[in-house]
BTB domain-containing protein
Amino acid sequence: MPQNFVLKHRFKNVLDMKENEKQYSEEEVHGNVPWTLNISKVKDGLSLYLNCNKSPKSDLFTVQTDVEYKIFSKTQRKTIDCKVTFTNKPEHQILGWGYAKFMSWDRMKREFLENGCLDVEVRVEISKTGGVERVPLRSFDKVANKEYSDTTLVVKGRKFYVSKLFLASQSTYFKHLLMEAESENLPPRSLTQRLFNKTLHAKSQFMDQFKGRHEVTLEDVDPNDFQVFLEVLYGEPAINGELGNAGKKKKKRFDPNGG
């Protein structure tokens, strides 16, 4: 199944860049591969590249992609589409792909620069990969895990068997989603009545774990990112910074430890 992602970055102080100086975006991990963007000033042009930051010394890999490069402002945009296979195969190594002169430097200044900043967006569709598959550090989707869990989280059809009480203790997002949502929908009453209702609801939630399974579907989440997020939440290390920018956004959304 193709995986789509978008890299966006606002490059600052572009007019201060010297000849051949490069500016890079923050690294993001998608499809188990780290990616960055970079721009540079080359003679009278602006260069733009998408970089696959997987080590050339790692096991052989290939990532087939369809890429759309875009530079835009409030009134203008320029896009270029291409197909490229990123790989570290010695006979055809490609770890970065783009355009040495995406546009002229003068046009960039005249039509796209805003307060010294340049907005860049690159859309990527990964159609096929080889050698980049990630081995999970902890399993959440095996049927055997069902016996020791009380909640099923469904992410794009993939099921994660987890502990409701554990997630609620680690994340205010999941505490609200799994434990408190019904309480907060109660009509306004006296403080005593609300506290009493919350106590009854908490007791009911506690008993539910012995009666049946709670299944919740999470929207707008990549299952691979969520796998890494759960591993970190359950105490596994995020190897080589693989939580990445996308994973950090999920971490912020799910608010571990209320932080």
In short: The domain at 143-254 is CATH 3.30.710.10 (Potassium Channel Kv1.1; Chain A). Helices lie at 105-112, 164-170, 172-184, 191-211, 223-233, 244-254.
